[in-house]
Specification:
The structure holds 2 protein chains of 2 kinds.
Chain A lengths: L29 H8 L26 H9 L3 H13 L3 H12 L9 H6 L5 H19 L4 H31 L1 H10 L52 H5 L1 H23 L5 H26 L4 H19 L7 E6 L10 E12 L9 E16 L5 E14 L11 E10 L10 E16 L1
Parallel strand pairs in A: 1-2, 2-3, 3-6, 4-6
Antiparallel strand pairs in A: 4-5
Helix pairs in contact in A: 2-3, 3-4, 3-7, 4-6, 10-11, 11-12
Chain B lengths: L7 H22 L7 H38 L4
The chains are: A alpha/beta, B mainly alpha.
Chain lengths: 450, 78
């Protein structure tokens, strides 16, 4: 190492292999070592090796931080600390970690976990990664209203990115200065810790026989049962090899068609139907595709485990979508302001959004009116007339109710069933009529003003 | 030539999924009212139990059949 003073945790040059983060045992040049680790035989002088997650004892959970540290040539502890802080303060860390786990393949592997998940081979790690990402998304969604928290997360992310970039620039400048010294022995070093595969022997990942990783939760049998083996739960008629290679295509096609059907069904009904109904139609279309796929597969081949997984997920989504309120039509904001008793419609409804029924301008000449306001999801606002007696009947599936006279600031989410309230005319004003108002809110807030 | 054996459980699964899809479409159209999970979960779970039962019965029948087949081929004929 020269007189250049690098901060701890940073190794700008190959010769400066510090002890900060578990250096490889014998090799001095860390970037070269990373290049030698991958299975690609091309040594890659100018370009860096593709990112790989760590393996073995260096990793803590899935090796994402270790892999990132090796890729960016920065101490992985920095990534670990930043990700933990980001996970605790808003979930972004969990999202980043889960996505990294899914997308970046492990060292020595060709396929990322997302590859395996989408090609129907589902085992524990990708499910855990998906779960971590989902939890992170949920945490992030719960922090959506918290501006300072989000600003902190984004600033920390930006600061980390800046620090990594700066460290790389510095490392590159240092390496350029010492290039003749550092590059010589590194090129001479044997590049292969393990023998590279022969060019013809390893086709692309979709053709590779799926026999490397045993023990999927769902997925194809790892090997065909030999003549002597009795596998009652995985009895498998040996297929012609060419056909077996294309077996997973069926699962992928089914998944894509089902996803298309779901999006098409939801999208087509979205402008005309409430959110719950629209989602239900889309998910039911996808489920229909899965059902047809199973009918075909029962005669034409074994269905893949991935299809069962997605089918069950769709059923769960349908059960959830069926609970959403089916009130009203359309999405948006509406204000209804009837002025005469004859203009009051018997029903005002809105699927999602906000609906305001303004009765303050209503002129009643001794008559009676009755109306109903239905809102699926969102905010219902009711403005009462000053000169009439109002019988208000309301129920809220889940949400907050704010009545005239309440001075509370917070939101109190609860379920309200069939409340009945009477509001007389304002003081000093004779009652000019009677209005019956019924309000149904599925999920949201009801505000009553006078 | 038939390369695949018929899978009754997959057939039942397909029928159950189609039936579930149809019932949820009817629910979405307002013909049926399935709204609460109290009604939807038993329907879905019942269908999946049916699929599981079919798979179990199929495997049992196949195992028994294979067992008999093996005994007939291996046992010496008097």
């Amino acid at each position: 190492m020269t007189d250049e003073s690098a901060p701890p945790g940073e190794r700008p040059t190959a010769s400066a292999a510090g002890p900060a983060d578990a250096p490889p045992p014998a090799a001095g040049a860390v970037p070269r070592q990373a290049a030698a680790d991958r299975s690609d035989p091309d040594p890659g002088d100018g370009e860096r090796p593709p990112p790989r997650r760590g393996t073995g004892g260096d990793k803590v959970l899935a090796g994402v931080c270790h892999g990132a540290g090796r890729y960016f040539d920065v101490d992985p502890v920095i990534f670990r600390i930043v990700l933990v802080v980001l996970a605790l303060t808003g979930g972004i860390g969990l999202i980043v970690y889960g996505m990294g786990w899914l997308v970046v393949p492990q060292q020595g592997e060709r396929e990322s976990e997302a590859h395996r998940l989408l090609s129907g081979r589902i085992d524990g790690p990708p499910l855990t990664a998906v779960l971590i990402t989902l939890v992170g998304c949920g945490l992030y969604a719960s922090m959506l209203g918290n501006g300072p928290n989000q600003a902190f997360s984004l600033l920390l992310l930006a600061a980390t990115a800046g620090a990594v970039y700066w460290s790389q620039q510095r490392g590159r400048a240092g390496a350029a200065g010492e290039a003749p010294v550092a590059a010589g022995p590194a090129v001479d070093a044997p590049p292969a810790a393990q023998a590279p595969p022969e060019p013809g022997s390893s086709p692309s990942w979709w053709r590779e026989p799926m026999s490397k990783e045993p023990g999927y939760l769902w997925g194809p049998a790892d090997e065909e049962p030999g003549p002597g083996r009795l596998l009652p739960w995985r009895t498998w008629i040996p297929l012609p090899a060419q056909h077996k290679d294309h077996a997973w295509v069926f699962g992928l096609v089914v998944f894509l068609v089902a996803a298309t059907a779901g999006v098409a069904g939801t999208g087509a009904s979205w402008p005309f139907q409430p959110v719950g109904v629209s989602l239900e139609i889309g998910l039911a279309s996808a489920l229909g595709v899965f059902g047809l796929a199973y009918l075909v597969a029962s005669f034409a081949g074994r269905p893949r485990g991935g299809t069962a997984f997605w089918s069950l997920l769709t059923v769960a989504g349908l059960v959830a979508a069926a609970t959403l309120p089916k009130t009203g039509q359309g999405v948006g904001e509406s204000v209804w302001r009837p002025l005469t008793a004859s203009a009051v419609q018997p029903l005002y409804e809105r699927g999602a959004g906000s609906g305001e029924l303004d009765l303050t301008g209503l002129r009643l000449q001794g008559s009676e009116g009755s109306t109903e306001l239905k809102l699926g999801t969102g905010r219902a606002t009711l403005r009462l007339p000053r000169n009439a007696l109002v019988h208000l009947r309301y129920d809220v599936g889940l949400g907050d109710v704010r009545l005239p006279g309440d001075d509370k600031d917070g939101v109190d989410v609860k379920r309200v069933r069939h409340q009945l309230l009477d509001y007389g005319p304002a003081a000093g004003t004779p009652a000019a009529g009677t209005v019956d108002v019924t309000v149904h809110v599925g999920i949201g807030q009801l505000r009553v003003f006078r | 030539m038939r390369r695949h054996r018929f899978e009754p459980a997959a057939l039942v699964m397909g029928l159950v999924l189609l039936g579930l899809a149809a019932s949820f479409v009817l629910d979405a159209c307002g013909v049926w009212n399935l709204g609460h999970p109290r009604r939807t979960v038993p329907v879905a779970a019942g269908g999946l139990l049916l699929v599981g039962a079919t798979a179990v019965v199929t495997q049992v029948v196949r195992a028994v059949h294979a067992h008999r087949e093996r005994r007939r081929t291996h046992a010496p004929h008097p």
